[in-house]
UniProtKB/TrEMBL annotation, chain A:
The keyword Signal applies. This is Phosphonate ABC transporter substrate-binding protein. It comes from Litchfieldella anticariensis (strain DSM 16096 / CECT 5854 / CIP 108499 / LMG 22089 / FP35) (Halomonas anticariensis). Belongs to the phosphate/phosphite/phosphonate binding protein family. GO terms for biological process: transmembrane transport. Keywords: Signal. GO terms for cellular component: ATP-binding cassette (ABC) transporter complex. Pfam families: Phosphonate-bd. Residues 1-20 form the signal peptide.
From TrEMBL, chain B:
Its main location: membrane. SUPFAM superfamilies: MetI-like. It comes from Litchfieldella anticariensis (strain DSM 16096 / CECT 5854 / CIP 108499 / LMG 22089 / FP35) (Halomonas anticariensis). The chain crosses the membrane at residues 6-28, 66-90, 102-125, 205-225, 237-256, 297-322, 423-443, 455-473. It is a multi-pass membrane protein. The keyword Transmembrane applies. This is ABC transporter permease. It comes from the Bacteria. It is found in: Cell membrane. The lineage of its organism: Bacteria, Pseudomonadati, Pseudomonadota, Gammaproteobacteria, Oceanospirillales.
Length: 284, 490
């Protein structure tokens, strides 16, 4: 039995040879897993063809897990939100934002309300919301937590926990939509593209929930790559990845995000997210 | 009756729990909680075994992580049990077992990432601490006589093998097989943080409302645990242990430089890293204590005390289900099945399900803790009651329960409940990850913010709290003279 355990340990620690030169990427789990899996498997196939290396998509269970995998060099590329991208680049010197969706340069958050609240479409933040229940998305989300919290604090002049009778974290945007639709929470804040995606897919009964406010614009999602990929995959590899992402024009692929196309992005584009993150105490 | 210390202690606990209940939040916030429960039940009645092409993989990985983790834990635990008289080993073991498997997994995830080693160590380390303690207690209870009559010059190892180990062997095997069952539950729950086990698929299926898949996954899990005795045979064990490491999956390769970075940078408190010295550290600690640790501790204690009393009440109500003094052959079997289902469902999984159905409050947590732990204690108390012999003319029904059986099993029941106290608290803390504001909530927040220095301080506080409760429980047990043997431990 002891021998068996030793052997077991040896097997565990042996590096997996097949993955040595595989380019691995991940994405923050901001939506339903099946949808993410389908979308990013297509991206993996596309990148493998363009870059002529093995490309593997690895799903993770939390925003932090995506940042950690990137930081630990277990993935080299990631589709991050604004905040998670800033966290990741902060922890990995030399890493850079490569590309963002056209929509990401001017992203917004939707505040949604269950019909039972009596709040009207486009009504804006108001004192009528006090003492209702409210849910964010993931704790590490930009459009589901950071920016909505920022605007809530700005409007009400206090922490959301004081404004609302209950504040929750649903985990992701799809779940925020369904929790508010079911009335589990009266109010919620979420990524507007996910909302529109869910409405288009017929998953939301728009008679029961509506959008009461949309935030001002801010930069959000982006592809971020580690600085050391050139050493590992050859000179100019990061630039080739960037070009491949910018060249993505298959409508089916773009629709799955949904984005109308990808444009170049830089680390500096996200300075405002960094500042807000620091202001809310989510970044040091 | 009021002079009895046992009665007074019990009433004290109940009064405390009632006081706690005034501060707790038990609201059901979903609009149609029973409709969702109905959909789940429908999923259990009509499980969808075809839709889940990953069912096999989920089960295989759950088994593999359990076998490797428990195997490694048992082996290390046995070695530690032999040197358990050392205060260092005892303290070390108390410490590692005070930290929940999920917390261990969250720690290892930071530097091993999604490598199988993360899951294996998350099980093996706390289990080694538990095995060391229980194995040492079992070995202590063996008759010392055989060892004294050994001829001079007998080797230590063979002496041990032929005297204490051989006497204790049946108990060791018994306890280890019980722990394997716990290991399966732990392994399943590790899926919630990203290991490829049952919890991983269950969470996805739930998030997407695929109740048919949820039903299929749950049913297979129950079958796996209920049939444990059939397929885990001593002769097959070496085969399982050898095969398991190969079935863990490959995950992502480990990058070893991350390990040193974690220990030399990540967990160093931020003010020290930025050179702000001791005063900076004090401000940082004070802020962490007041804004996170204290509210976390408060909610953890509140929830623990309420859950403990409800667990106890439930156990005393349910043990007749499997007691031969109250049931016949068929009703006894049914009762047995009910208790097996209750105790096979990990608290975390149950709380996760109830949270989806009822919305976030302390209610899902209390119900989950009470059902799981109540099921375990009821099972053990029921077994205990079966050893009682009643008079021929003993009353029947409620009178038999109130005047004959309950008073006789109450002592052992309290001993078991106090033993579970620490376990309930450990689980209460971990349920915070699901969004209930116990310590785990703040640990999870710190990890989501990539602030491991804070996470680690909070995990240490949780561990100290657990150790404190463990000591308190032991004091109470000895004050009330509740007999407690290693082999009676759940």
């Amino acid at each position: 039995m002891i021998k068996g355990l030793m052997l077991a340990f040896a097997v565990l620690l042996a590096p997996s040879l097949a993955s040595a030169e595989t380019f691995v990427f991940t994405a923050i789990p901001d939506e339903d897993e099946t949808r993410l899996q389908q979308r990013f498997q297509k991206v993996a196939d596309y990148l493998a063809e363009e870059l002529e290396v093995d490309v593997r998509f690895v799903p993770v269970k939390s925003y932090a897990a995506a940042v950690t995998a990137f930081r630990n060099n277990q993935v080299q590329l990631a589709w991050f939100g604004g905040l998670s991208g800033v966290q990741a680049r902060e922890h990995v010197p030399g890493s850079r934002a490569l590309a963002q969706g056209v929509e990401d340069a001017e992203f917004v958050t939707y505040f949604i309300a269950h019909e039972s609240t009596g709040l009207q479409e486009g009504e804006g933040l108001s004192d009528a919301m006090r003492d209702m229940t409210f849910t964010f998305g993931s704790k590490g989300s930009t459009s589901g937590r950071l920016m909505p919290e920022y605007y809530l604090r700005e409007h009400f002049g206090e922490a959301p926990e004081e404004t609302f009778s209950r504040v929750g974290f649903s985990g992701n945007h799809s779940r925020t939509a369904s929790l508010v639709a079911s009335g589990a929470y009266q109010l919620g804040a979420l990524n507007y593209t996910v909302w529109e995606n869910e409405v288009a897919a017929g998953n939301i009964d728009t008679d029961r929930v509506n959008v009461v406010w949309e935030t001002p614009q801010y930069p959000d999602y982006q592809w971020t790559i580690r600085g050391d990929v050139d050493e590992r995959f050859g000179d100019g590899f990061a630039d080739r990845v960037q070009q491949a992402l910018l060249d993505m024009d298959d409508p089916e692929l773009l629709d799955s995000f949904p984005r109308s196309g990808f444009i170049p992005a830089s680390n500096d584009d996200y300075a405002v997210i960094r500042e807000v993150g620091q202001e809310l105490g989510l970044l040091d | 009756m009021w002079q009895s210390a046992t009665v007074r202690t019990s009433l004290g606990f109940i009064a405390l729990a009632i006081a706690c209940a005034f501060f707790a939040d038990f609201q059901i916030s979903t609009q149609a909680p029973w409709q969702e429960l109905g959909r789940l039940m429908l999923g259990l009645v009509m499980p969808d075994f075809l839709a889940v092409d990953f069912l096999g993989e989920a089960l295989l990985r759950t088994l593999a992580f359990a076998f490797v983790g428990v195997g490694l834990g048992a082996f290390t635990g046995l070695l530690l049990a032999l040197v358990f008289h050392s205060a260092w080993v005892r303290t070390g073991c108390a410490f590692v077992r005070a930290i929940h498997e999920l917390f261990w997994a969250l720690i290892f995830l930071q530097f091993f990432g999604l490598h199988p080693l993360t899951g294996v160590l998350a099980i093996a380390i706390p289990y080694a601490g538990i095995f060391a303690k229980v194995y040492a207690e079992i070995l202590d209870e063996t008759d010392p006589q055989p060892a004294r009559v050994l001829p001079q010059g007998s080797g230590r190892v063979s002496g041990l093998a032929f005297t204490r180990l051989s006497q204790a062997w049946p108990h060791l095997v018994n306890y280890t097989s019980y722990r394997l069952e716990c290991g399966l539950r732990s392994s399943a729950v590790l899926g919630f943080v990203g290991m490829p086990t049952l919890g991983y698929y269950l969470e996805s299926a739930f998030a997407q409302g695929l109740y048919g898949s949820v039903g299929a996954l749950l049913i297979l899990f129950y079958v796996l645990i209920a049939t444990l005795k059939l397929w885990v045979r001593p002769r097959l064990l070496p085969f399982y242990l050898l095969a398991a490491p190969f079935l863990l999956g490959s995950g992502l390769p480990i990058v070893w430089s991350n390990v040193s970075r974690f220990f030399t940078q990540d967990i160093v408190p931020t003010p020290l890293r930025n050179g702000e010295g001791i005063s900076g550290l004090m401000t940082w600690l004070l802020d962490l204590m007041t804004t996170q640790a204290l509210p976390g501790i408060w909610n953890t204690l509140l929830l623990t005390q309420i859950a403990l009393v409800i667990t106890g009440t439930l156990a005393m109500m349910l043990f007749p289900l499997i007691s031969r003094h109250f049931t016949g052959r068929i009703s006894g079997t049914l009762g047995h099945v009910a208790l097996v289902v209750m105790r096979s469902t990990p608290e975390y999984l149950l709380a996760f399900i109830l949270l989806q159905l009822w919305g976030p409050s302390m209610l899902p947590a209390v119900v989950a803790l009470a059902l799981h732990n109540g099921g375990i204690i009821a099972h053990l108390v029921g077994q205990r009651s079966n050893q009682l012999t009643l008079r021929q003319d003993a009353p029947r029904g409620l009178d038999r329960y109130a005047y004959e059986v309950a008073p006789r099993v109450y002592g052992p029941f309290l001993a078991l409940l106090f033993y579970r106290w620490e376990i309930i608290m450990r689980e209460t803390a971990i349920l915070g990850i699901l969004g209930i504001a116990t310590l785990g909530f703040y640990v999870d927040s710190a990890i989501q913010e990539i602030r491991f220095d804070r996470a680690l301080v909070l995990i240490l506080i949780t561990a100290l709290l657990n150790i404190g409760v463990d000591i308190l429980a032991r004091r109470l047990r000895s004050r009330l003279r509740l007999r407690h043997t290693a082999t009676s431990e759940p």
